[in-house]
Design a protein that fits this description.
It is elongated and about 130 Å long. 45% of the residues lie in helices and 12% in strands. Among the domains are: 55 residues, Classic Zinc Finger (Double Stranded RNA Binding Domain, 2-Layer Sandwich); 123 residues, Classic Zinc Finger (Double Stranded RNA Binding Domain). It is α+β, with helices and mostly antiparallel strands and 455 residues long. The termini are far apart. The longest helix has 31 residues. The N terminus and C terminus are likely disordered. 2% of the residues are buried. This is C2H2-type domain-containing protein. Pfam families: zf-C2H2. Keywords: DNA-binding, Metal-binding, Nucleus, Repeat, Transcription, Transcription regulation, Zinc, Zinc-finger.
Length: 455
Amino acid sequence: MDMTFSNKRTIGCLRWTLGKPSAEVLQKVRDLFSLDINKGSLLEQQQDDHRAKRSHHCPHCEEIFPFLSKLKIHLKIHTGENLYSCPDCEKRFTTSHSLTVHQRVHTREKPYSCSDCGGRFSRQSHLKRHQHLHTGEKPYSCSDCGKCFTTSSDRTVHQRTHTGEKPFSCSDCGGRFSQLSSLKKHQHIHTGEKPYFCADCGKRFSLLDTLKAHERIHTGEKPYSCSDCGKRFSQRSNLKIHQRLHTGEKPYSCSDCGKSFSQLDKLNSHQRIHTGEKPYFCSDCGNCFTQIDTLKCHQRIHTGEKPYSCSDCGESFSQHSSLKKHQREKPYFCSDCGKNFSRHTSLKKHKRIHTGDKPYSCFECGKSFTTSSALTVHQRVHTGEKPYSCSDCGGSYSRLGNLQTHHRIHTGEKPYFCSDCGKCFTTSSALTVHQKTHTGEKHTNGYTQAKTFAD
């Protein structure tokens, strides 16, 4: 018997010089064939492992890819070669699939829907990420601090807070960013481009995510719900901020005093206490403020605007906090006089009437006051400050109440009337003085005193 193989790697052809091969020869052939297949499988596996471990660096932006094919697709961003263009906005993409997904921006197609809340999405990946909100699942944890995330991309971005890595750089100014989305957002500063517009009101946006968040104003959609209390939000960022109420997390701390905050903008506002910066000023009276919201509330003094109204009684307020205070229950009561209050701090202030406690002192004259606001008003006696001015005649006042009373000279308004004779007055104090003419009570000031002298 003679056995020959025409190829070292594969079994090419067996030439038999004798008749039917024996069982021993057949077994040897089977073993050899099996060995060759196993070698091939092992080789392929080793090659796959080698490819997976190999890193491919982009020479333009330093981004890293595990596979050469991924790098080739990415390189089209830099070279502009073989890109797929959108016929609606001419934006270009590296793959036809990316173009198809993008075109849903124009068609508003959202083929993927959530079985829990009915929310619709243009991408399957967005649906999967959204569903973690319902399940509460956060499968990706940070090895540095243990914080968990719903997506691996969120974890990757978070980990850059530990490493300080900023892999994305702006070609115009050299600014570096930890997220690609942050770079893209930044680049619109240089280009001024706002490619996304709202079909309902026409407002334009530089980012698709900003447009989507804006559109919820029109639809009223609130797809993000809190797993602790069920409260719903139109934006994911607002949900994250809200959840810190339950967790007590305050990730932003002041480098000057160590005080911590749940929101970055709250920290920025707080730090102005240390710097003394007041970047927001009133064009009517020149007063400066540390926060834009405080300025907006202040400007309503000049405009008289009261945008917040009570649905029960119709009374209007210039500040939302004043409306909430008006509508709130009054669970706190004074054990001395039985008066009820909506806030514990208000009760504490009230109790100073009974205790005589005046913790706020004027450093100019030493006079003490029960509240800090009363001290602030008093200090204007020394400074001469009159921040409230009349838009009709220009007269200035140190107190808002005095300005409001003064305005009635121009409007002719007399909201206080006497129940005995029907006479009306601009101030409650004038009414009080007048009412003593009916009771016969002598008064040392005002109207009654003048009448007594006339008699």
